[in-house]
Amino acid sequence: MRKIECELAIAGGGPAGMASAIGAADMGLSDIIVIERDDHLGGILNQCIHNGFGLHFFNEDLTGPEYAERFISEIKRRFIKYLLRTMVIELKDDKCLIAVSPNGLVEIKPRALVLAMGCRERTRGATRIPGYRPAGVMTAGTAQRYINIEGYLPGKEIIILGSGDIGMIMARRLHLEGCVVKGVVEIGNFAGGLTRNYVQCIEDYDIPLYLGHTITNILGEERVEAVEITPINADGIPDSSKKFIETCDTLLLSVGLIPENELSRQANILLDPITGGPLLDQYFQTSLSGVFAAGNVAQVFDLVDHVSDSGKKAGENAALYLRGEIPPWGKETASVIPGEGVRCVMPQKLTENCQGKLNFYLRASTHRRMVLLDFSASDNRIIYSEKINIVRPPEMINIAIENVDITPSGKYYFTIKEEYL
Amino acid sequence: MNNNNTDVLIIGAGAIGMAVAYELSRYELSVTVVDRLNDVGGDASRSNSAIIHTGFDAPPSTLESSLVVHANPMFDRLCRELDIPFRRTGAVLVAVTEEEEEEIPEILDKAHENGVFDLYYLPARKVREMEPLITPKVRCGLYIPRESIIDPFLLVIAMAEIAVKNGVEFYRECEVKNIVYNGRSFTTETTKGKVKSKIVINAAGLNTDKISNFLGIDDFKVTPRRGQFHVIDRSAELPIRHIILPVPTKISKGKLITPTIHGNWLIGPTAEDLSDKSLSNTTRNGLDEIISDVKKLIPAIDKNYVITQYAGLRPVREPGGYHIRTFKNIPGFIELSGIRSTGITSSPAVAVFTCRKLKEMGIPLKHREAVCTVSTPLPIRKGIVMFRELNNLERAELIERDPLYGRIVCRCETVTESEVVQSIKRNPGAHDLDGIKRRVRAGLGRCQGGFCGMHIPKILARELNIPLNRVTKKGGGSFFLNGETKRFE
User: Which of A66, A238, A327, B47 could, after both became Cys, cross-link A230 (CB 3.0–4.6 A)?
Assistant: First the structure.
């Protein structure tokens, strides 16, 4: 087994991993290895041929592959090493990685590590939709890859369960390919993805959106023949007296994303049950000191621009850690807790006082207008407050707070409350 | 069909059909197996609780009891022979209510009548010691050490591989349309042509009534009893080591929880008597019933760890009971009907019993020399070497010999491209996605094909030399993709 030692290893060569590598390199670190399982760098961006990427990061409207290409060329320009077709299969709690490729097994021993494994889609099994098990049930992301990279269609008459961003983008994509998109079925009362995707992918093409509905049965033995759609009543339970059958040959699922933390679990890194990612301190550091996490492995982000942001910072912090300028994961860290109206928050831990800006990523738990967002200590002392016109769970709230002084082991809360006009 | 003339035609490639084929392949006979599905493994044989029973609760003094009780000890050697995983986990039967507690002496009596003597009474404290997750309400239990777990797919596949190596011919997607007996031999019409044979063995499971009907036998009916299951991911890390059985009711064995040989857990099954043999779907009520019933035994069961679900149809014969029959007016026809949920367990004994029937018919069974005997070193088959079962040094060595072992195509189960390619190239190999899943577990893990769904169809298309949009999930019209994107000149 080959053995490699390096300063910084990055598990994953998607947007988060590439940004981390660049961030670390720009802090003067040279001995970096990016480990990517696919044939190319870029991760999921390579199959996202639609536009809308880079509006924040580059102030430009790019497609996924274009956005990826910007980072790939930056990686090459800095001569950052990367391994392709190489998958990390083991992470030990001394940061040692075992990766596998057709060239064999390699043990990588880095002094610091960034986890950038991204996320995976929830599938039919996890949603417990009963019925037959025919061909033609596929996650939206798998369909996207077959259409955009392989040139094949999953089917001709499509129903999509879940109105996450990928689901809505695939509704438009399939419509443009001449498929009949017979409906997007969403269990909630709002579209699950970004407003702009709802407008540009659903409204603009008159695709039926069934809000407050779910799929309660899948019919067809060999290939999907139909699905049963049922409205949800006021108690949140499917009302079977109002169910109806819609014929289709394909059911695409866009029912959520799960951060890929199999490796984090192996190394006993503490995870946040709400985000599904590691608990992070303000440096994107996990509970295993010197191991950082960025992008969707930490929590599922709304925009790739934010993923790149988090990657860049995680990479920079990894470089600072190697210089001894960042404290290890502390025993007396303060906790940041999602309070009333907040579903999740990142970072969840604060190791020390912060000079300058400290960024928090939050998600609201419900759709609301005219709200007051507070950051407060456990004695109800309000540290920071901001009025926000509208909060939507699919869209992340990015808050920068300056000069936060913390009490060791203290508890801090984010709350979103209705504001009176 | 290459060969439309054979000594023995076996209809059905489930556990029973393949066990018979495997047994007959030791003798100087030509054997052909046909199945309407796209793979070996049958229907009921692949959607069950994956348990090798002891027969402690079989109806006493029946052919079923005798075959199941005697088959159980055959599995240690059979699984070594076939190089497939098998574990004698043992079962704990749990009485929770007062009525259930009163049943325990009767269950013991029944087991003794069946000739199963190695089962032991457990006081409540002992039950909880053995299985701490069992409800504190438990009153007492039984320990049945020889109840065991197996991979039922691999059992049938492994028997099929050796049978085929020994010369048995297997035809998939080959449905029997009619059988004609002319007084000396049988002509069986199938969707792939006609087969002439001296012997026809009906091992068609749920369809045994239909097959026997072709020869005028109409004294029984087979209806499906549906059993729905949930699969719980290994990440649930349940400390459950034994098969946990409820006290059986008059109607069924009840819903159990069992570890699988691959580290997950199964919970189920329901027992729903239906009339339509195509109703292999799961239902909301059925799945909810599984969760609530199993919670009575193990309150810690959590539906958030469910990774998938399936339903199997067990054949229920009316009149009931195992029937291994020959007919005076149709010499050469053997019917194996009524072989219900215990069929996986009984299959090796049913196979030997069927050979005896052939002997009684006057068919000479002469051992072939080149074939495995008791003195052949075991195993006689080498299973596909699984990357995830090896240590890192062994893995490194393997990749050096076969670089495709260095390409992981299924993340959850850590399956490599080499394993997938081997599963396709073996004979009988996988011709569809479900076939690959059953042979090497790619797609069976928590992401249920989310990642490998990108790779495996491409490997299958390449190895079978077919376009990507001809790849199926399970043969027939179950195409994975259905159409191409717009093309521009």
Answer: A238
Let me know: does A413 contact A378? Beta carbons within 8 Å: yes
Q: Which helix (H) or strand (E) holds A334?
A: strand A334-338
In B325-450, where does DSSP find H-type helix? 343-360, 392-401, 417-425, 433-440
Question: Domain for residue B72, yes or no?
Answer: no
- Determine whether B22 is exposed, middle or buried from the number of CB atoms within 10 Å of its CB (0-12, 13-18, 19+): buried
Asked whether the predicted pLDDT for residue A120 surpasses 70, the reply is yes
Measured between beta carbons, the chain B residues lying within 8 angstroms of A217 are 281, 283-284
pLDDT exceeds cutoff 90 at A403: no
- Domain A2-120+258-329, CATH: 3.50.50.60
Q: Can you tell me the mean pLDDT for A22-45?
A: 97
Per residue in B157-191, pLDDT (tens digit) is 999 999 999 999 999 999 999 999 999 999 999 99
Helix B15-24, helix B343-360: angle, nearest 10:
40
CATH number of A123-255: 3.50.50.60
**The total number of structural domains that make up chain B:** 3
If asked whether residues B227 and B302 sit together in one domain, one would say yes
Please give, rounded to a whole number of angstroms, the shortest distance from the CA of B460 to a CA of chain A.
15
pLDDT at A257: 93
Give the residue from B270, B387, B408, B466 with the most A CB atoms within 10 Å of its CB, the best one to mutate: B408
- Domain assignment present for B114: yes
Nearest to A102 among B287, B395, B399 (CB): B399
The predicted-structure confidence for B52-66, as pLDDT tens digits, reads as follows: 999 999 999 999 999
**Cβ contact B161:B81 at 8 Å:** no
Neighbours of B303 (CB within 10 A): 15
Give the residues across from B385 on adjacent strands: none
Share above pLDDT 70 across residues of chain B, in percent, rounded to a whole number:
97
Tell me whether strands B333-337 and B408-410 are parallel, antiparallel or unpaired. Answer: unpaired
Residue A231 token pair: 């409205």
Over chain B, what is the mean pLDDT? 94
Beta strands in B35-85 (DSSP E): 51-52
| pTM reported for the whole predicted model | 0.94
Contacts of B282 in chain A (CB under 8 A): 130-131
Assess B282–A contact: CB distance below 8 Å, yes or no.
yes
Domain ranges of chain A: 2-120+258-329, 123-255, 337-418
CATH number, domain at B353? 3.50.50.60
Q: Tell me what the mean pLDDT of segment B249-272 comes to.
A: 91
In the Cβ-directed half-sphere of A396, how many Cα atoms lie within 13 Å?
21
Residue B77 has pLDDT above 70, yes or no: yes
What range defines the domain where residue B246 resides? 91-145+223-310
Q: Which of A223, A230, A297 to mutate to test the interface with B (most CBs of B within 10 A)?
A: A223
Mean pLDDT of chain A: 95
In this prediction, the answer to ipTM > 0.90 reads yes
The encoded tokens of residue A334 equal 């303060």
Q: Is residue B291 domain-shared with residue B428, that is, in the same domain?
A: no
Contacts of A136 in chain B (CB under 8 A): 482
Determine whether the interchain pair A135/B478 forms a contact, defined as Cβ–Cβ distance below 8 Å. yes
In contact, A194 and A165? CB cutoff 8 Å: yes
Residues of B belonging to the active site:
53
| Nearest one of B349, B335, B280, B278 to B312, comparing CA atoms | B280
User: If you classify domain A337-418 with CATH, what class do you get?
Assistant: mainly beta
* Residues B109 and B237 grouped into a single domain: yes
Is residue B115 domain-shared with residue B195, that is, in the same domain?
Answer: no
- Give residues 418 to 437 of B whose Cβ lies within 8 Å of A: 433
Instruction: Say yes or no: B285 and B411 in one domain.
Output: no
Residue B365 lies in a domain: yes
Q: Are residues B337 and B204 in the same domain?
A: yes
Is residue B107 assigned to a domain? yes
Distance between A31 CA and the closest CA of chain B, angstroms: 25
